[in-house]
Amino acid sequence: LVSAISLFGAKYVVGTSADFPPFEYVQNGEFMGFDIDLIKAIAAEMGFEIEIRDMSFDSLIAALVSGNLDIVISGMTITAERAEVVSFSKPYWTADQSVVVREDSDLTVTVLFGKHSIGVQTGTTGDIWVEDNLVTTKILTGDFKRYETYTLAMTDLINRNLDAIVLDSPVAQSFASVRPVKIVAILKTYEDYGIAVNKANKALLDLINEGIRRLESSGKLAELNLKHF
Ligand code: ARG
Q: Does the Cβ of 15 fall within 6 Å of ligand 1?
């Protein structure tokens, strides 16, 4: 109770990589998306302020650890490796990976084999999946390209500088609905998304978990789902 009182009204810096619709993106200079609405709703529910900062996905965990960020919400998958350095909230979403090619492409899931070029966002679970399953095994012998954002990877795919992108399924669907790309395979990776905080910040983690619980039981979380998916 004492820690809850002292956290009330505090202001936290929230990091995200705003290249990941419909979870986080920038529209008319504003941060939008499911994650953005979720963290705003948790903050309103639990009585704290937030300031959102856009960063490359690959630098989010280091920024939490060094104290430059208080919270990360970025469609971030809870993995054992990440959970060694930061604390995760209870899961708020489940996703798989998808393989995306240009709409006019004849390529299928075979794009993952042989001399094709695959793009990912640096430091994501898609990056790790391709590295571990295709690159180190030499199943993929073409270029493996890492991008700072999925937006840049999409541009390269559409400009024919890439054969395929591997990224989270809901985000692949979102890109496919507005850009000339299509999903040719789903990789069942069963990833849970969590909100991350510094390991030392147990009180903030409790606050976030309580916020998620309240939004679940009030139906607000279901409303956010309907709004964004
Ligand atoms: N879920 C994947 C991961 O945790 C990708 C997240 C990418 N998020 C983003 N906002 N670009 O590695």
A: no
Q: Please choose from 14, 54, 74 the residue to mutate so as to test ligand 1's pocket, defined by most ligand atoms within 8 A of CB.
A: 74
Residue 125 Cβ contacting ligand 1 at under 6 Å: yes
What contacts 128, CB < 8 A, 6 or more positions away? none
CATH fold match for the domains 2-92+194-228 and 95-191? yes
Which letter, b or e, does each residue of 110-138 get, where b requires 16 or more Cβ atoms within 10 Å of its Cβ? ebbeeebbbbbbbbbbbbebbeeebeeee
Question: What does the alpha-carbon distance between residue 203 and residue 71 come to, in Å, rounded to a whole number?
Answer: 12
**Atom nearest to 16 CA in ligand 1:** 10
Q: Which CATH class is domain 2-92+194-228?
A: alpha beta
Rounded Cα distance between 153 and 159, Å, is 10
Are the beta carbons of 120 and 130 closer than 8 angstroms?
yes
**Of ligand 1's atoms, which has the minimum distance to the CA of residue 150?**
11
Cα–Cα distance measured from residue 217 to residue 50, given in angstroms and rounded to the nearest whole number: 23
| Bridge partner list, 101 | 182
Query: For the domain bounded by 95-191, which CATH number is listed?
Result: 3.40.190.10
Residues 87-142 pLDDT 10s: 999 999 999 999 999 999 999 999 999 999 999 999 999 999 999 999 999 999 99
Q: What is the pTM of this model?
A: 0.95
User: ipTM of the assembly?
Assistant: 0.98
Q: How far is the CA of 219 from the centre of ligand 1 (A)?
A: 26
Token reading at 229: 């998916």
Per-domain residue ranges for the chain?
A: 2-92+194-228, 95-191
